[in-house]
Design a protein that fits this description.
Elements: H1 2-21, H2 26-52, E1 72-75, H3 83-86, H4 113-124, E2 126-131, H5 137-150, E3 154-158, H6 174-180, E4 186-190, H7 193-206, H8 218-233, E5 238-245, H9 258-262, H10 268-271, E6 275-278, H11 284-298, E7 301-302, H12 307-313, H13 318-330, E8 334-335, H14 347-358, H15 362-374, H16 381-392, H17 396-417, H18 440-446, H19 459-471, H20 475-488, H21 493-505, H22 509-522, H23 527-539, H24 543-556, H25 561-573, H26 577-590, H27 595-607, H28 611-624, H29 629-641, H30 645-658, H31 663-675, H32 679-692, H33 697-709, H34 713-726, H35 729-736, H36 747-754, H37 756-760
Parallel strand pairs: 2-5, 2-6, 3-4, 4-5, 7-8
Antiparallel strand pairs: 1-3
Length: 761
């Protein structure tokens, strides 16, 4: 039977290969399959059953508190065997080399690290275990957490991927008190906290647009949250144990080191709460003990006499020993000194190369894992598989063929490389990194549709992917993600907010306002939503409604200077200059160095004829931002209105020194030169404005004024007609403009302003 299967499989492979190399052969392939499929069907079903069937791996949904901004798993007191959950492993219970099945080792002959860790935690209540990767920090922390859990402590484990969105609860979550009582004993468990800190840091760096929610640094929020729980439950009933990598140099170029990710110096109030415990490297006897305990339990063949030499060869980490055992088990080798790799450096590249040699489609899986990790999406086989298929591409036949190859490769990598739980350096071994921005839109089509009633635990990943899409300005992708989140969690104010933001960036303002309204139905004091709603209404031209929305934002956050500023702009657009100035003044009380507010205040003052006050407001602008070209230009207009023409020209020139293609400044300078009678220079200035923007009707109109003052009426009428053709509003302006007073009785002027030439034309 086996030989028959092998022969049929080889025959199919050869035909498939012909089709792949020659797309025109597809019809031949299909004809052959139609002929032989009835003959192959019974055997084919048996093959598929044997090759692809496997007992479904249960996907355990994390037990999350209902507050979506409180990213913790709760391990109830006296949970049976909590080690797997504490170590964040999705390896099978039967895997003898799973992290939680590896026997715990006393790492130093004359010291009990477990006792030291527990003792220091009992004294200080907050403990940070530091060390390089592979030392076993998580295991030491998890052993202590398991002991305390058996003694009645609930373990509150931080989910690093969700941590950047943490908000401090206002009261003890009901789910917590219902399960644990009013005064539970809580052990907060922060594992590999570098990851959460770095994700939060990246979000802070990207959050320059204040239309997005601005959360304080994660360190500050964690400190506030932990103090809240201490106040609610009692300081003696809230303990914290954390682990962090401590490498001071980065393995990757242009990336911060693990120690830099923690930002010790930036947040001393948080880090000084912890007793810092540097974890010792295991001595050689600990490595020997690990081998002696684990090798026979895992059924691995070994040359026992080599254990001491292997320990000498090892890089003094537990991780390297375990990965070596995984390798020899997968390759059915005998563990020996000769085939034991002393360090993981280079090992990942070798294992990647061997995986590609065995299953060429494995490269798509590595790429998929890289992309999903960059997008902060949880790694599950049902997510990795379609992502890898997307990366493989190809025509329909190629996609079908590649599907099976990817499926086989994924099974292999899950079993042998634990690809769904990649270790430090494993994915980086492939070297050729993918650019996430190029795939955001495709990921936003794949991942959200995988969410269903049985896979709601993926919803947090979809929300995180949506936020990354917003950061990447992939707004349609963000709409796809947040639309799925709101479908399954319609009470997520944050998801409605981001959906509204994405709609507005796509210029779908009505939908944006509707989404903000949904967010505000859930959280009426959501000041960012009120503010952004005002921005959307402003874009729709609904100034009064926008002002009302800004006022609501200010009701909940009176020092929200951006809302005061936009309110001032809207009032100015409505012609309410005094009210606009008052709004700008509120901005400047809160943020006196906000130069745009000083500048707009000057524009409003100029509109009221208060030119000296306007100039003072522009000086203030330029003290803060000397290269703000618009302020120099507007200052020139105010000086010109005061009769200080030469000073005005000097101010325009400053604007043009900073921004030589600032066509408005060339236009304004030309008009001022016209008023000085320097007509030739004025025309040069107007022409420069029109070189930059040929349809700038104001410059064309001002050329007409210049020719009128120069008494060149043919050119004046020609340019006036041109300006009206570009923008009909200049016809009404010319009717009352005193610059044309001397030629109002001219028949040619009368026909232009009455529109008769246009009618006759």
């Amino acid at each position: 039977m086996g030989n028959w299967i092998a022969a049929v499989w080889q025959w199919l492979t050869n035909i498939w290969q012909v089709a792949l190399e020659n797309p025109d052969a597809t019809s031949i392939l299909l004809a052959l399959l139609q002929t032989v499929l009835p003959l192959l069907l019974p055997g084919g079903i048996w093959v598929l059953f044997r090759v692809f069937w496997r007992k479904p791996q249960p996907q355990s949904e994390p037990k999350l508190l209902s507050n979506e901004h409180f990213p913790f798993e709760v391990i109830a007191p006296r949970t049976q065997n909590p080690l797997k959950q504490l170590m964040g492993s999705n390896q099978a219970e039967s895997d003898k080399l799973a992290d939680f099945n590896i026997p715990y080792q006393r790492r130093l002959k004359d010291r009990s690290i477990r006792d030291e860790v527990e003792g220091r935690l009992q004294v200080n209540h907050w403990l940070l275990i530091l060390g390089q990767t592979g030392l076993g920090k998580t295991r030491e922390a998890a052993e202590v957490a398991q002991t305390l859990n058996n003694e009645g402590w609930a373990v509150i484990k931080l989910r690093n991927n969700d941590a950047p969105n943490l908000t401090v609860p206002r009261s003890l979550p009901p789910e917590l008190t219902e399960r644990l009582g009013d005064q539970p004993k809580l052990l907060f468990f922060f594992d590999n906290i570098n990851q959460a800190m770095y994700l939060s840091q990246r979000l802070r760096e990207k959050a320059n647009d204040e239309k997005l929610p601005q959360l304080p640094p994660l360190q500050e929020r964690l400190l506030e949250m932990l103090h809240f729980f201490e106040g609610s439950c009692g300081a003696d009933r809230v303990w914290v144990i954390a682990t962090a990598r401590s490498e001071e140099t980065s393995d990757q170029p242009n990336m911060p080191s693990e120690k830099e990710k923690l930002e010790f110096n930036a947040f001393p109030a948080f880090w000084q709460q912890f007793d810092h415990y540097p974890l010792s490297e295991p001595d050689n006897q600990a490595i020997v003990d690990l081998l002696e305990d684990t090798v026979p339990r895992a059924g691995i063949r070994a040359e026992e006499a080599d254990y001491s030499r292997i320990a000498d060869k090892n890089d003094q980490t537990f991780r390297n020993v375990v990965e070596n055992l995984v390798t020899v088990e997968n390759r059915e080798q005998t563990l020996s000194y000769a085939n034991f790799r002393g360090t993981l450096q280079g090992t990942w590249k070798d294992r990647y190369r061997k995986a590609i040699e065995k299953y060429p489609a494995a490269r798509f899986i590595y790429d998929a894992v890289e992309l999903l990790r960059a997008a902060n999406v949880e790694l599950y086989d049902f997510v990795v598989l379609p992502t890898a298929r997307m990366l493989a591409g190809g025509n329909k036949v190629q996609q079908i063929w590649c599907y099976w190859r990817i499926h086989l490769a994924l099974r292999y990598l899950i079993q042998t490389e634990r690809i769904l739980q990649p270790r430090d350096g494993q994915i980086e071994a492939k070297e050729d990194a993918l650019a996430l921005n190029e795939y955001i839109a495709k990921l936003a089509r794949i991942v959200p549709r995988l969410v269903n009633r049985k896979r709601l635990f993926l919803l947090n990943s979809v929300e995180r992917l949506g936020k990354i899409a917003v950061d990447s300005e992939a707004y349609q992708a963000a709409v796809n993600c947040f639309g799925r989140v709101t479908q399954f969690n319609p009470n997520s104010d944050l998801a409605w907010f981001y959906q509204g933001y994405s709609f507005v960036e796509l210029k779908r303002y009505v939908e944006g306002v509707a989404a903000y309204d949904k967010a505000l139905d859930i959280k009426s004091d959501y000041h960012e939503a009120w503010y952004n709603r005002g921005v959307a209404l402003d874009d729709l031209g609904q100034k009064d409604a926008a002002i009302a929305s800004y006022d609501k934002a200010l009701e909940f956050k009176p020092d929200y200077y951006k809302a005061w500023y936009n309110r001032g702009v809207a009032l100015s657009d409505l012609g309410q200059k005094d009210a606009a100035i008052a709004s700008y003044d509120k901005v400047l009380e809160i943020k006196p160095d906000f130069h745009q507010a000083w500048s707009n205040r000057g524009v409003a003052l100029s509109a009221l004829g208060r030119y000296e006050a306007a100039i003072a407001s522009y000086d203030k602008t330029l003290e803060i931002e000397p290269d703000y070209h618009e302020a120099w230009s507007n200052r020139g207009g105010a000086l010109s209105a005061l009769g200080q023409k030469e000073a005005a020209i000097a101010s325009y020139d400053k604007a043009l020194d900073i921004k030589s293609d600032f066509h408005e400044a060339w236009d304004n300078k030309g008009y001022t030169l016209t008023l000085l009678g320097r007509y030739q220079e004025a025309l040069v200035s107007f022409d420069r404005a029109l070189e930059i923007k040929s349809d700038h009707a104001n410059a064309i109109y001002n050329k007409a004024v210049c020719y009128r003052f120069w008494n060149k009426l043919e050119e004046a009428f020609e340019n006036l007609q041109h300006s009206i053709q570009v923008d009909s509003n200049y016809r009404e302006m010319a009717k009352t403009d005193t610059d044309f007073d001397g030629i109002r009785e001219d028949e040619r002027f009368r026909r232009l302003v009455e529109g008769e030439e246009e009618n006759n034309g």
